[in-house]
Every structure is written in structure tokens, then in C-alpha cells.
TrEMBL record:
Family that this chain belongs to: Belongs to the class-III pyridoxal-phosphate-dependent aminotransferase family.
Signal peptide: none
InterPro entries documented for this protein: Aminotrans_3, PyrdxlP-dep_Trfase, PyrdxlP-dep_Trfase_major, PyrdxlP-dep_Trfase_small
Protein name per its UniProtKB record: Putrescine aminotransferase
Record SUPFAM superfamilies: PLP-dependent transferases
Documented EC number(s): 2.6.1.-
A single GO cellular-component term on record: cytosol
Molecular functions per Gene Ontology: pyridoxal phosphate binding; transaminase activity
Keywords: Aminotransferase, Pyridoxal phosphate, Transferase
Length: 454
């Protein structure tokens, strides 16, 4: 048995972490999470922490679900693995694909499985380019994305994403991907511009990029319905319908990355339904299994699927674990829980509106807070030095890190990205859990205010 100190030493010596400064890790030591139950995680010191991030936006049904463990156990005993290459399959991916087709918008009926959101976006990129080649338009291969978007960490995911520091480290992105402005009114709306007008202007940036490249060269536009890692940027309601209209006008495919928003977070099964649009592809992962197994599903619209089927020829793409039987069994059991407990409806009609009201009434007036915003159970708090002028603290996200550290010390796990505090709690949260979270956020903000103005 290792003590905490020993585990931290071994961790620093042998374990390379994702998105981590390893010099800092060595100095500070890692936080070791040892178990979890319902909405709480517990660290090796026995501290109980309310998890306002659902892990990494994924544990939507909460921790400790026996049903999911049982589903994995039974499937492992029956058939732990077989592949879905070369016209083979196993039962669970078949049943899951049918289930997802029933939940998705009507013209989305086919599913390609992988193990992560990044893999699903790689697949999506290759699939849309393959589609246009099959249609006899191989030059139609440019993809339009947004600045500050996050679409994963593989080479294609990083290239699709719009995070500058990631591009710099990559040292050479996949060619023919361009990035336009994000729909972030708090910073980018012009004086006097309404939310509605700003949404249309942000969509117009996509049209401009299509026209600049020539529509005959543009394969698709990709976006997260609500930007997640980029800071829970919620577009005005005018944005997505206008994007869809522009895509249809120029015959550009519409790709939605719903790796975070899929499976209930916005109060519908998919955010496409929240914004009233019908995309050609929907990338999903995370909450598909509530994070209990690694699994992604790329949902493919009829237009692409019909061309694939009618033109034939092999799509030279796939992963050993595409349609993994155990992961798919867990996903089916997870969807059962979401359905049985009415979690999607609960977000839409109860906890989502309550969450918005709680942030507005109990957090927004704090002197450190420039703006609060939320959609369903996805929220953000902007940290500023000056509310009136929106002036930020100096240093790259330093202030948000101070707030985050106080929050964790006071029993609430949330995330800081840039100057933004992010919340993405499990869908099992109740009004009482939201109250508790707001109380702890308030405490963290007060303590951070003292530190930052000391
Ligand atoms: N797309 C979005 C919108 C995400 O938020 C993420 C991960 O956070 C990904 C893609 C990548 O998913 P994964 O980490 O499973 O590869």
C-alpha cells in the first residue's frame, strides 16, 4: 500500500499527464482521486468534493451505478471483444446504433463507433472529404471551424480546433482548415448591437470564409453547438439557424461536435434539437457511456450515408475498438438510466432553469464576476477585475485559478479555462445540489477577492 506522498512521487516520476505542466506537477504533487459516489468524488485524504464538472463533462448519470458495472460484467463474460471490420459485427453495437438513430434528428440514421471524441472527429473529417470525392468533387475539401474551438487532441482534432497554443506545438496542421470568429457576445459584440444581430454577424463570418475560398472548394463547417473547453461560449439563438441556412445555400455540409452537449446536457438529447437545426454529422462521446467506458459515436446523416452505400467502395478507416461490445453494452445501460430517470426532461424543465436562476441571483452580482451564463446544465462565470469596464486581471488566467483552488478547498470541483470558471455537473443534480454548489462558489469568490486585492 502506497501512502499519498509515495503515490505522488511515483506519479511525478513515471506518469505523463494530459494537459499538465510537469514542472508544476512535480513541485505541487497530483491530487489523487480514489473513489466516487453519486455526485461526489473523494480524494486520498478522504475529502468529499462535489463534482461540478462531471469528471470531464461526461459522468452524466453520476458515480457508482451498479447497472453499468453489471452490464460490463455480463458482456465481458459473454463476449469481451470482437471487431466490426470486414462485414463482421457483434450484437451490442448494432442495438446501440439503432437506439441512437431513434434519438437523433430524423435524417441521421447511421453510426460509426470509435473510442474517443478525438477519434470521432478524425473520422468525421475523413468521411466528409471522402463523401465529396465520391460525389466527384475531390477539390471540395476545405473545412471551416472557429477560433478557440476544441475538437480533440489528435492531429486532426488539433487542426480542426482553433486553440493557438495547440497549433504551435503541433508544428504543422492538417491542411485546408480555416478558423473564423467565435460567437461570443460578451467580448465581441459591438456597442449597441443586440444579441440577435451579433448572432447573425458571427454567422456571416462563415459565409465570408465560404465565399473567399469559393463554395466549390468548401466541404463543411464544424462547430460545437456551445463551445466547451473554449469557455462555455453560448451563441445567440439566431446563430445556428443562420449557419444552417448559409451551409445549405452553398452546399456545404454542417458538422456538429456534440461531444459535450450530446445526451441531455442542454435539455434535449442533442443540442441540434435545442437550436432547431439538422446537421449532416454529429460527433458524440463522453456522456454516451457517462464516462464508464471509452466510446464515441459519429452520427451520420442520410445524405452522406446514401452516397457511401450507393457508390460503394471501401472507406479505408477504422479502429480496433470500433463498436467495442463492452463499451456499447455500457452505453445501452446508460441510455436506459437517462431515459428511466427522465434526466433530459429534468434538465429542460427543472434543473436547467433553476441553475440559470441561481447563477443569476446568487453569483452574478459578486464584484469579481463580469458575466454568468448557462444553457441546460452547462454554465460559466467570467472573472474580471472591474465589472463595469470588463477589465481582466493580468496574467494568463491566474485569477480564475485562484477561484478554482478556493472552490476545491471548499469542496467543489470546477474548472478554470482562461478567465472563465466552467460548470458542467452530472444531470442527476437536484435543486439542493445546485444550492450547495452556489454556496461553495460564493465562498470561493469571497476568498479569491481577498487574495486578488490583498
Ligand atoms: N470535442 C469536444 C467538443 C470536446 O470537448 C472534446 C473533449 O473534451 C473532444 C472533442 C475530444 O474528445 P476526447 O477527449 O474523448 O478525445
Amino acid at each position: 500500500n502506497y501512502s499519498l506522498k509515495q503515490l505522488q512521487q511515483v506519479d511525478a516520476a513515471h506518469h505523463l499527464h494530459p494537459f499538465t505542466d510537469h514542472k508544476e506537477l512535480r513541485e505541487a504533487g497530483s491530487r489523487i482521486i480514489t473513489r466516487a459516489e453519486g455526485p461526489y468524488i473523494f480524494d486520498s485524504e478522504g475529502n468529499e468534493i462535489l463534482d461540478a464538472m462531471a469528471g470531464l463533462w461526461c459522468v452524466n448519470v453520476g458515480y457508482g451505478r451498479e447497472e453499468l458495472a453489471r452490464a460490463a460484467y455480463h458482456q465481458m463474460k459473454e463476449l469481451p471483444y470482437y471487431n466490426s471490420f470486414f462485414k463482421c459485427s457483434t450484437p451490442t453495437p448494432v442495438l446501440l446504433a439503432k437506439r441512437l438513430a431513434e434519438l437523433a434528428p430524423p435524417s441521421v440514421n447511421q453510426v460509426f463507433f470509435g473510442s474517443s471524441g478525438s477519434e470521432a472527429n478524425d473520422t468525421a473529417l475523413r468521411l466528409v472529404r471522402h463523401f465529396w470525392a465520391l460525389e466527384g468533387k475531390p477539390q471540395k475539401n476545405r473545412i471551416i471551424s472557429r477560433k478557440n474551438a476544441y475538437h480533440g487532441s489528435t492531429v486532426a482534432g488539433t487542426s480542426l480546433g482553433g486553440m493557438e497554443p495547440m497549433h504551435q506545438q503541433l508544428g504543422g496542421a492538417v491542411p485546408n482548415i480555416v478558423h473564423v470568429m467565435m460567437p461570443y457576445a460578451y467580448e465581441l459584440a459591438l456597442p449597441g448591437e443586440s444579441d440577435h444581430e451579433f448572432g447573425l454577424r458571427a454567422a456571416k463570418a462563415v459565409e465570408d470564409a465560404i465565399l473567399e475560398a469559393g463554395p466549390e472548394n468548401v466541404a463543411a463547417f464544424i462547430g460545437e453547438p456551445i463551445m466547451g473547453a473554449g469557455g462555455v461560449k453560448i451563441p445567440p439563438m439566431s446563430y445556428w439557424p443562420e449557419i444552417e441556412r448559409i451551409c445549405r445555400k452553398y452546399d456545404v455540409l454542417l458538422m456538429l461536435d456534440e461531444v459535450i452537449t450530446g445526451y441531455g446536457r442542454t435539455g434535449e438529447w442533442f443540442a441540434a434539437q435545442s437550436f432547431g437545426i439538422t446537421p449532416d454529422t454529429i460527433t458524440t462521446a463522453k456522456a454516451l457511456t457517462s464516462g464508464y467506458q471509452p466510446l464515441s459515436a459519429l452520427l451520420v446523416g442520410d445524405r452522406i450515408a446514401t452516397t457511401l452505400t450507393e457508390k460503394g467502395g471501401e472507406f479505408y478507416h477504422g479502429y480496433t475498438y470500433s463498436g467495442h461490445p463492452v463499451a456499447c453494452a455500457v452505453a445501452l445501460a446508460n441510455l436506459d438510466i437517462i431515459e428511466k430517470e427522465g434526466l433530459v426532461e429534468r434538465v429542460k424543465n427543472d434543473t436547467g432553469p433553476y441553475f440559470a436562476q441561481a447563477l443569476r441571483e446568487r453569483i452574478a452580482d459578486h464584484p469579481l464576476v463580469g458575466e454568468v451564463r448557462s444553457f441546460g446544465l452547462m454554465g460559466a462565470i467570467e472573472i474580471v477585475r472591474d465589472k463595469a469596464t470588463k477589465e481582466r486581471f493580468e496574467g494568463d488566467g491566474r485569477a480564475a485559478v485562484v477561484v478554482r483552488d478556493h472552490a476545491i478547498a471548499n469542496g467543489l470541483m470546477l474548472r478554470a479555462t482562461g478567465d472563465t470558471m466552467i460548470l458542467s455537473p452530472p444531470l442527476i443534480w437536484t435543486r439542493e445540489t445546485i444550492d450547495l454548489a452556489c454556496e461553495r462558489i460564493g465562498k470561493a469568490l469571497d476568498l479569491a477577492h481577498k487574495d486578488l486585492f490583498a
